[in-house]
Amino acid sequence: MTGGSLGLRTGSYGSLQQLQLIQNGFSHNLPTPGLTRKSSKLLLSSSREKDRVLPFVCRFLGRKRVTMLLLVVLALLVFVFNSFTVNKESSNVIITQHSESVIPYRKDRSSSSITFAGMEDKHDIKIPSTENTVTGNVKHRILIPSPSHPLIQPSTVVRDHCENFAFPPPPPPTDRKRYGPRPCPVCYLPVEQAIASMPSFSSESSVLRNLTYVYDENPIRIESHRGSEFGGFPTLKQRNDSYDIKESMMVHCGFVKGSKPGHQSGFDVDEADLMELEMFHDIIVASAVFGNYDIIQQPKNISEFSRKNVPFYMFIDEETEAYMTNSSVLGNSKRVGLWRIIVVRNVPYSDARRNGKIPKLLLHRLFPNVRYSLWIDGKLQLVVDPYQILERFLWRQNANFAISRHYKRYDVFEEAEANKAAGKYDNSTINEQIDFYIKEGLQPYSEAKFPITSDVPEGCVIIKEHIPITNLFTCNWFNEVDRFTSRDQLSFSTVRDKIMGKVNWSINMFLDCERRNFVIQAYHRELLEHMPPPRPPRAIIRLPLPLRQSTKSVKTPTGKKISLKRGRGDKKRHRKVGGSRDSKSF
């Protein structure tokens, strides 16, 4: 290699060809290469500059303030970088918790199976999509916006924002002292689209077309079993006949006395309220507080359209009315927030919880001209618009009855033992009810019942379309509660399975964590009264800022000098007396 090749980067951007030309004697025709080796003087000067700068930098970095400043700047850079990365990754996922913000959804997606991993249910079961589980003839369900709707324009398009929606892993608990189930994300349609998705026609009832109810002014107890005059004391034969599904049926369904429910029937309301109950509504929301057991919770996130078109009814007894009147909660308007208060007189049961089962299970009798109802227990606060709930759990699933399954238990035998352990009801009565069901063929839950995913509901929320088959179900469910214990979780599966064995009908049992997404549970009044009051916030005592050190002395009325500078060293330093220099440091 000749000296002309010094400083060339061989093997980069054609320098190899230049090297070959130089070796062949054509170097005088080539341009001067751009990269040449630096002279020794330049290298020497640069090394000296490095020797001068490095000690200065080391001395500069050795200072504490500079080091701390650099560490703070580095930490800020790392924080900003991580925040940008997290925001970029989470910008594609929207999670609703208690529905403070909702995820739109569209109905027309293909049926698929979903595996809920990490949710509350302890049994690992693969749940198929329930869009087509409820069979039977269903009339045309309008899923496109209606031009006549006051809020929806004809050009509105329902977009599928939740086509790829999946449950994310549960977040870590924010409060480590709080244990138990949590809400999970739910995809809702926007309110306007949910309103437009409401079916134009009622679903056709499977087999049963005409359902009437027993009327008897003087019901007589014939058999030695529990029951009530309000329920009419149905015999075992009448009970069995109520599960023989026919096109026309007459069954016991409470209110056996009086000309109509609410009028001299044992669950009486005022005439003005009776007229209110007989009005036509597409959707109602109902709840009840009996025995002054709960504190009324006000709904949240309710659209203006629902506020004007969906009435909220709260049933209370005279004891609750007296308390609310004395506490100035209830006035002459009979309204508490969104709730229209309906006072019930002459309640049929001494047990307030059993009285609450009447509006819970027999809303179709109290509201004969209502299409859909949403029942929530008195301790719950609704935080999602009713149209969005109905669209998500009824209309989208092509169902006419929906209820959440229990977050932990799915077997009736386990539920009975849990009720006895918690003292929910008399143990002998619970045993009598379970033994009766065992003789009828009750078996522990197993995966052989699939696609039924649970035998135990969390019955504090019921979403229902008022058609004959669903009305029959709640009538028979109430008769079981009237005959046995008031724990409706124990009788739910028996009534459901008997009807499903006769007709092609089923219930949408959704996850309990989904229920917790649209209702928030509060404590009963009794528990709140026995809870210790919350601790007062800690008082923050701000000490005055220390005075600056000064060499001046402050004279007191006695003429003594007081030092403004405190410290252990001062005691030793100021022991000298006299005109020394140390005495002037006071």
UniProtKB/TrEMBL annotation:
Keyword set, alphabetical order: Membrane, Transmembrane, Transmembrane helix
Domain of life: Eukaryota
Pfam hit, one: TOD1_MUCI70
Coiled-coil residues: none
PANTHER family per UniProt: ALKALINE CERAMIDASE-RELATED, TRNA (MET) CYTIDINE ACETYLTRANSFERASE-RELATED
Domain TOD1/MUCI70 glycosyltransferase-like: 211-524
Biased composition (Basic residues): 562-578
Segments passing through the bilayer: 66-84
Disordered as annotated region, ranges: 550-586
Lineage: Eukaryota, Viridiplantae, Streptophyta, Embryophyta, Tracheophyta
Name of the protein described by the UniProt record: TOD1/MUCI70 glycosyltransferase-like domain-containing protein
